């Protein structure tokens, strides 16, 4: 299924930072949802700013408009404040895009655990991510670092415990 | 002299009586007509407009009050009241997008959509009448003539002649620029700058500085919303 772009994407001034504060807020809010929707649709977890500059996300060749890099940073900073973006370096060249935050993944996971009755059972991370039982779940195929962070959140809430199993890692749900 | 004066007065009085009698008869016929064609008036926008014109000719305004013979008979008061509410809803829902300005065509399309297929038909004339009634609620609603159509304003921003002239200029493309305004209207740069800045500040215009021939001022209200078609992601 194709990604459906919001109307703003084909509106030329969307790619110029608006001088009017009220309009700018609407503009940034629209950019924030666009970035998250786009990454969710393509299941992207990281953005390299230089690459992103040239990607269709920030560069609409049909109308020949491109979001300037300083504005891209403003948008990502907005998302960072909401907990959806984490910078990976001080120079702000790469970032994680958490279109679902770790605690949200954790909740999703825990709901599933309760549904299928896996409490008080030990699972490996590999099973959770790649196992046949999770194929229909949204967290199937999730990147391992993110799965670990989601489990970490559950551990902090006392709902799980993460430990090493051989070379991989395992988890016990409560 | 005295006799003549009385005579003239009597004649005038008699004439007046006759005329008011005639008018009464006419009103009576109009009422009969209205009750007979109630269904048509409700259903057909064209019929409704002609009926409104007929009423206006003899100084009857079926919309003037919610009560009274006309509105009870026809339910027209309710009709425009309901339409007014729908107009307000559509305008509010799109205000974040267009800053409170919308072409009448666009409003018409959206009102029809929100009313659903089974509701009675509504014409642009009906919308204009309903909007005029909304003015009673304060200066929130007004209409700006744009070529053959209207621009409906649902925010109380004060727009003077200069502003509306610039909007009219932008109607064709959805945007304008200082250079275009200068070429078309021969205004002084300060005046142009003042007007364009005001439209930005009121949230009616968006700025685009990436055009090759200088900054452009875009009006979402004037850009066809259909242009924002869902692009296939492989196409850009």
Automatic annotation (TrEMBL), chain A:
Coiled coil: none annotated. InterPro entries: ESCRT-II_cplx_Vps25-sub (IPR008570), ESCRT-II_cplx_Vps25-sub_N (IPR014041), WH-like_DNA-bd_sf (IPR036388), WH_DNA-bd_sf (IPR036390). Pfam families: ESCRT-II. Keywords: Cytoplasm, Protein transport, Transport. GO terms for cellular component: ESCRT II complex. One of its GO terms (molecular function) is structural molecule activity. It is found in: Cytoplasm. GO terms for biological process: macroautophagy; protein transport to vacuole involved in ubiquitin-dependent protein catabolic process via the multivesicular body sorting pathway. Its main location: cytoplasm. Belongs to the VPS25 family. This is Vacuolar protein-sorting-associated protein 25. It comes from Eptatretus burgeri (Inshore hagfish).
Automatic annotation (TrEMBL), chain B:
Component of the endosomal sorting complex required for transport II (ESCRT-II). GO terms for biological process: protein transport to vacuole involved in ubiquitin-dependent protein catabolic process via the multivesicular body sorting pathway. Keywords: Protein transport, Transport. The keyword Transport applies. This is Vacuolar-sorting protein SNF8. It comes from Eptatretus burgeri (Inshore hagfish). Component of the endosomal sorting complex required for transport II (ESCRT-II), which is required for multivesicular body (MVB) formation and sorting of endosomal cargo proteins into MVBs. Gene3D superfamilies: 6.10.140.180, Winged helix-like DNA-binding domain superfamily/Winged helix DNA-binding domain. Belongs to the SNF8 family. InterPro entries: ESCRT-2_cplx_Snf8, Snf8/Vps36, WH-like_DNA-bd_sf, WH_DNA-bd_sf. One of its GO terms (cellular component) is ESCRT II complex.
């Amino acid at each position: 299924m194709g990604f459906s772009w919001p109307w703003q994407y084909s509106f030329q001034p969307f790619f110029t930072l608006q001088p009017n504060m009220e309009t700018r807020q609407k503009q940034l809010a629209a950019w924030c949802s666009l970035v998250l929707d786009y990454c969710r649709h393509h299941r992207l977890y990281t953005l390299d700013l230089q690459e992103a500059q040239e990607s269709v996300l920030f560069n609409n060749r049909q109308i020949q408009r491109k979001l300037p890099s300083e504005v891209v940073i403003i948008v990502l900073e907005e998302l960072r404040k909401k907990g959806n973006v984490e910078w990976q370096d001080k120079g702000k060249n790469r970032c994680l895009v958490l279109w679902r935050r770790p605690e949200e993944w954790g909740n999703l996971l825990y709901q599933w655990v309760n549904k299928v009755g896996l409490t008080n059972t030990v699972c490996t991370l590999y099973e959770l991510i790649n196992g046949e039982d999770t194929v229909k779940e949204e967290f199937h195929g999730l990147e391992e670092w993110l799965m670990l962070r989601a489990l970490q959140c559950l551990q902090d809430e006392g709902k799980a415990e993460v430990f090493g199993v051989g070379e991989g890692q395992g988890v016990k749900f409560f | 002299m005295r006799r003549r004066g009385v005579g003239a007065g009597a004649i005038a009085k008699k004439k007046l009586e006759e005329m008011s009698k005639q008018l009464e008869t006419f009103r009576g016929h109009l009422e009969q007509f209205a009750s007979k064609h109630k269904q048509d008036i409700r259903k057909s926008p064209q019929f409704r407009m002609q009926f409104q014109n007929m009423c206006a000719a003899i100084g009857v305004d079926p919309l003037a009050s919610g009560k009274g013979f006309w509105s009870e008979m026809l339910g027209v008061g309710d009709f425009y009241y309901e339409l007014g509410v729908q107009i307000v809803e559509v305008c509010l829902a799109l205000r974040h997008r267009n800053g409170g300005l919308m072409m009448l065509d666009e409003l018409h399309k959206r009102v029809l959509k929100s009313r659903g297929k089974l509701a009675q038909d509504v014409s642009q004339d009906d919308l204009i009448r309903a909007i005029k009634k909304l003015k009673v609620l304060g200066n929130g609603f007004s209409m700006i003539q744009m070529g053959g159509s209207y621009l409906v304003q649902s925010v109380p921003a004060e727009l003077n002649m200069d502003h509306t002239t610039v909007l009219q200029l932008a109607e064709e493309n959805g945007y304008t620029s200082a250079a275009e305004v200068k070429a078309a209207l021969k205004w002084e740069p300060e005046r142009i700058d003042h007007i364009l800045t005001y439209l930005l500040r009121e949230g009616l215009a968006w700025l685009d500085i990436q055009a090759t021939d200088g900054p452009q001022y875009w009006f979402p209200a004037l850009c066809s919303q259909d242009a924002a078609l869902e692009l296939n992601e492989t196409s850009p």
